[in-house]
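thread: overnight batch results

M.L. [08:02]
morning all. the overnight job finished for the chain we discussed friday. pasting input first so we're all looking at the same thing
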Amino acid sequence: MSAPKPPPPNLQTAIILLFRSAPPFVLYPEDAEAMYTDMQNVIRSAKPTAPKLIEKQAHGPIKKVCFIDTELVGVSTQLGVMPPMPGK
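M.L. [08:03]
and the structure it wrote out:
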């Protein structure tokens, strides 16, 4: 007999993907809709002649991320599963 497998995680949450020339950042923000709108505004207002450093916080594996606004090329929101966090 084999040991029973634990059930798969089923805690679904809204996630944000920030697209750039490298692989996207995957963030688990507290308010995904607000961050999505904020990131749209960052993309719209980015000026190649005056790049800005943007910092965002989240609750998943990535706690904080910084990037240059002119490097961001897209943002999306989707439903995902929060990965298990160590020590929780």
